[in-house]
Recover the amino acids of this structure.
């Protein structure tokens, strides 16, 4: 008898921006040094990730829960002209289980449903997992030293076809968000040099 692992299920994080910031802060603090480097392009200490979480203003946050807590997130920061920046993080103990892939696929589907046509991701050049996901979505990758910048045409992307995101749940959450004006904040924190840098 063969037993195959279940596909991780993502969902929109409930609540509002304040709830999201709290969930992100708790999640970021559980990331190890290498995972923090992959997410923030720097090995951030606790104090810095708390500041980043307190200032985060994503337009959409998807998460994966295990044992009643969020262990992986995908954040979508919408910009102008139907463009967005996407950031993904998965806690160390849950990496290599398909959580990042599930978040990526459902995140592209959520971005598409929210009217995003193009998206960027920034990641460390040694991050083979995200590189593979971007390529599977037909994205273009530009290497900038130790970092990579990926560009995805969400409107032409087939990667979201396997999305497990619940359409009524998505519509309900995005309708609630339309009433508030989001503060634009890039997923890659441009002022990270002013934050403590050691993990």
């Amino acid at each position: 008898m063969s037993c195959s692992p279940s596909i991780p299920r993502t969902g929109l994080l409930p609540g509002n921006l304040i709830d999201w910031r709290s969930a992100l802060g708790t999640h970021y603090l559980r990331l190890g040094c290498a995972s923090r480097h992959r997410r923030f392009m720097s090995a951030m200490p606790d104090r810095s990730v708390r500041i980043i979480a307190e200032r985060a203003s994503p337009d959409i946050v998807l998460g994966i829960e295990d044992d009643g807590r969020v262990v992986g997130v995908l954040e979508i920061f919408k910009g102008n002209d139907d463009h967005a920046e996407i950031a993904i993080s998965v806690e160390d103990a849950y990496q290599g289980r398909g959580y990042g892939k599930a978040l990526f696929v459902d995140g592209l589907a959520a971005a598409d449903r929210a009217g995003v046509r193009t998206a960027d991701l920034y990641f460390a050049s040694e991050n083979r997992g995200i590189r593979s996901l971007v390529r599977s979505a037909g994205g273009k990758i530009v290497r900038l030293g130790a970092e990579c910048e990926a560009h995805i045409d969400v409107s032409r992307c087939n990667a979201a076809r396997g999305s497990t995101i619940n359409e009524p749940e998505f519509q309900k959450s995005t309708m609630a968000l339309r009433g508030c004006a989001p503060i634009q904040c890039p997923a890659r924190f441009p002022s990270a040099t002013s934050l403590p840098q050691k993990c």
